[in-house]
């Protein structure tokens, strides 16, 4: 193999690696954003400022199904769906008791309710947690 051929192959390999890295960065960077603008480019609502965000269409299918049920007012598959969320972790903005409601998001393969929840607020806020309230992201619609 000539020096020129080896050089072209090395250049091609580096170019493909750079392209794959850029694609990976783009894909992972679109899943959550912090404050300022939504991942769709529009402004973030005041209630979501300073929080990590996720666009509704980027949520797991089960979470989108639960959002549809919330929008329709039920019926919900779990008895605790729609119950008051206490915000004991203080990760969401402080509001009077009863402001937040929680809903279970099915977790494939889980024998119980799992760790995934959507929490809604009286001012049309929606928050997503997949780690049973250890962290939240504001859901942008």
From TrEMBL:
Annotated signal sequence range: 1-32
InterPro entries documented for this protein: N1-like, Ribonuclease/ribotoxin
Pfam families, alphabetized: Ribonuclease
Key words, A-Z: Hydrolase, Nuclease, Signal
Superkingdom of this protein's organism: Bacteria
Keyword check for RNA-binding: no
SUPFAM superfamilies per the UniProt record, alphabetical: Microbial ribonucleases
Protein's recorded name: Ribonuclease N
């Amino acid at each position: 193999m000539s020096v020129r051929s080896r050089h072209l192959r090395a250049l091609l390999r580096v170019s493909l690696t750079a392209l794959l890295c850029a694609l990976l960065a783009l894909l992972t960077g679109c899943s959550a954003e912090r404050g300022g603008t939504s991942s769709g480019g529009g402004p973030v609502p005041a209630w979501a400022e300073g929080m990590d965000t996720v666009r509704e269409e980027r949520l797991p299918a089960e979470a989108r199904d639960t959002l549809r049920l919330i929008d329709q007012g039920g019926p919900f598959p779990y008895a605790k769906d729609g119950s008051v969320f206490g915000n004991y972790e203080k990760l969401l903005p402080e509001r009077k008791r009863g402001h937040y409601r929680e809903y279970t998001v099915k977790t494939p393969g889980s024998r119980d309710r799992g760790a995934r929840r959507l929490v809604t607020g009286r001012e049309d806020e929606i928050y997503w947690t997949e780690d049973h309230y250890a962290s939240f992201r504001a859901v942008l619609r």
